[in-house]
C-alpha cells in the first residue's frame, strides 16, 4: 500500500503537487485496512470510485441528526435498540461487508488459502489453532522498557484455546476493525502532517531518524525497526495528545496504577 501511495505521487512528475490531504490520506488508510483486515488489494488513488472505498465511506458516515440519535441509542441502550430494531450502520454498506467477509471465509476454507491478515487470525482462533508469538513478547518488552507509547499485551490469548465464534462474530470483528481505524488513522496522519509543516525543526529531526533507520536496515522498514524509532513514537503520541481521535472512553482500569512523580515535590 505504501509503495502504491508513493508511486501515485511520483507519477505526478512535479516537485510541487497540490492535493486535498484529508482525501488522500483517507484513501491510503482505506487501502491499508482492506489489506490488513480483509486480505484485499485496493488502489483507491488509482481507482477512486472502487466499491470497497465507497462502501467504507457510507459505513463511517456519522453526519445527520438521526444517525447520531441511533448511535446514542445503540451505545447507551443496546437492549432497547435491539427491541426496536434500531440499526447504526448503513444497511447497504453493512450488507456489502457481510457478504465480503462471508465469501472470503468460505473461499479460504474450501481452497485452503492462507493469508496473514485479520480474517485468517479470527478463523484460526475459531479452530483453536491460534498460537501466541513468544518472540514478539521480547520485542514489545524492549519497546516498553524504552518508554515508548506502548501498552503491555493482555494475558488473554496467550494460551491456546478454542473460541466459539460464529460467522456473525467474525463479521462484527472485521467491521469494528474497519470502523475504528478508517477515520481515526486518516485524521491522525492529517494532524501530524500539519504539525510537521509548522514545526520544521521537528520535521527535520524526524526525517533524520527515518533516514538513519533506512540506512541500518538496507532501505526496508520492518516491524522491529519501526518499534525502535523513538522520535517517531514521540511525534505520533504528541499529535494524539493535541488532537485525540475520541473524546471519551467507557473502558475501566482493572488494577491499581501509580503515576510516578517527575518533578521534586510531586506526589
Describe this structure in words.
The protein is mostly helical and 267 residues long. It folds into two domains: 169 residues, Cytochrome p450; 47 residues. Helix content is 62%, strand content 0%. The chain contains twelve helices and no strands. The protein is globular, with a radius of gyration of 21 Å. The mean pLDDT is 81.
Brief account:
This protein is 62% helix and 0% strand. The chain is an all-alpha fold.
Question: Would you spell out the secondary-structure blueprint of this structure?
Answer:
Blueprint: H1 2-10, H2 21-38, H3 51-59, H4 65-76, H5 78-84, H6 91-111, H7 118-127, H8 134-145, H9 167-198, H10 200-216, H11 223-227, H12 230-242
Helix pairs in contact: 2-9, 3-6, 4-5, 6-9, 9-12
CATH topology of the largest domain: Cytochrome p450
Q: Helicity range of the residues?
A: 55-70%
**H and E string:** HHHHHHHHHHHH
| Percentage of residues in DSSP E strands | under 5%
CATH-assigned homologous superfamily of the largest domain: Cytochrome P450
Number of strands: 0
Distance between the ends: 47 Å
* Biggest sheet features: none
What is the annotated CATH architecture of the largest domain?
Orthogonal Bundle
Q: What's the multimeric state?
A: single chain
In one word, what is the shape?
A: globular
Radius of gyration using CA atoms only: 21 Å
Cofactor: heme
Protein name: Cytochrome P450
Keywords: Endoplasmic reticulum, Heme, Iron, Membrane, Metal-binding, Microsome, Monooxygenase, Oxidoreductase
GO molecular function, one term: heme binding
Amino acid at each position: 500500500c505504501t509503495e502504491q501511495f508513493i508511486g501515485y505521487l511520483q507519477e505526478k512528475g512535479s516537485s510541487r503537487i497540490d492535493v486535498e490531504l484529508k482525501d488522500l490520506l483517507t484513501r491510503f488508510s482505506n487501502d491499508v485496512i482492506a489489506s490488513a483486515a480483509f486480505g484485499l488489494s485496493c488502489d483507491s488513488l488509482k481507482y477512486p470510485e472502487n466499491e470497497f472505498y465507497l462502501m467504507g465511506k457510507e459505513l463511517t458516515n456519522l453526519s445527520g441528526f438521526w444517525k447520531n440519535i441511533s448511535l446514542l441509542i445503540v451505545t447507551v441502550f443496546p437492549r432497547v435498540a435491539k427491541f426496536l430494531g434500531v440499526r447504526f450502520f448503513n444497511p447497504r454498506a453493512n450488507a456489502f461487508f457481510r457478504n465480503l467477509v462471508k465469501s472470503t471465509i468460505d473461499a479460504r476454507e474450501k481452497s485452503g488459502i492462507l493469508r496473514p491478515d485479520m480474517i485468517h487470525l479470527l478463523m484460526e482462533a475459531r479452530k483453536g489453532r491460534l498460537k501466541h508469538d513468544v518472540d514478539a513478547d521480547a520485542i514489545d518488552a524492549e519497546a516498553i522498557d524504552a518508554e515508548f507509547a506502548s501498552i503491555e499485551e493482555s494475558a488473554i490469548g496467550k494460551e491456546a484455546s478454542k473460541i466459539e465464534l460464529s460467522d456473525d462474530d467474525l463479521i462484527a470483528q472485521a467491521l469494528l476493525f474497519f470502523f475504528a481505524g478508517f477515520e481515526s488513522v486518516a485524521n491522525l496522519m492529517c494532524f501530524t502532517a500539519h504539525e510537521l509543516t509548522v514545526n520544521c525543526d521537528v520535521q527535520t529531526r524526524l526525517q533524520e531518524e527515518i533516514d538513519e533507520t533506512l540506512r541500518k536496515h538496507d532501505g526496508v522498514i520492518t516491524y522491529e525497526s519501526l518499534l525502535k524509532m523513538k522520535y517517531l513514537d514521540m511525534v505520533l503520541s504528541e499529535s494524539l495528545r493535541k488532537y485525540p481521535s475520541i473524546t471519551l472512553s467507557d473502558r475501566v482500569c482493572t488494577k491499581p496504577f501509580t503515576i510516578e512523580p517527575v518533578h521534586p515535590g510531586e506526589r
